[in-house]
């Protein structure tokens, strides 16, 4: 098993902390990178995986999908 430390937490907490009062908005380029990262990760998902916002981690503004149901 290989583990990697991610410095940005999960997607749910990131959105909660950074979008409180519309103070922070993703730039268009950041939206494209997020969409690309998610699309790439979704290509590896199986039907029985448990994907939700706490399984999407952020490391240096790059999205990573974790916990693909391997420990059921």
- Which regions contain 5 or more consecutive residues with pLDDT less than 50? none
In total, the number of domains comes to: 1
Helix content: 25-40%
- How many beta-strand runs? 2
Q: How large is the count of helical segments?
A: 2
Largest sheet, strands/sense/barrel: 2 strands, antiparallel
Explain how this protein is built.
β1 (56-59) and β2 form a beta hairpin. This protein has one domain (7-46, 56-72). Strands 1-2 form a two-stranded antiparallel ribbon. With 72 residues, the chain is α+β, with helices and mostly antiparallel strands. The model has no long low-confidence stretch (mean pLDDT 74). The chain has helices at 11-18, 28-42, and strands spanning 56-59, 62-65. It is built from two helices and two strands. This is Protein kinase domain-containing protein. GO terms for molecular function: ATP binding; protein kinase activity. Pfam families: PK_Tyr_Ser-Thr (PF07714).
């Amino acid at each position: 098993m290989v583990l990697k430390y991610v410095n940005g937490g999960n997607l749910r907490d990131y959105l909660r902390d950074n979008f409180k009062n519309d103070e922070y908005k993703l730039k268009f380029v950041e939206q494209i990178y997020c969409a690309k990262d998610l699309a790439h990760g979704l290509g590896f998902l199986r039907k029985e995986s448990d994907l939700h916002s706490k399984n999407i981690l952020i490391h240096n503004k790059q999205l990573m999908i974790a916990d693909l149901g391997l420990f059921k």
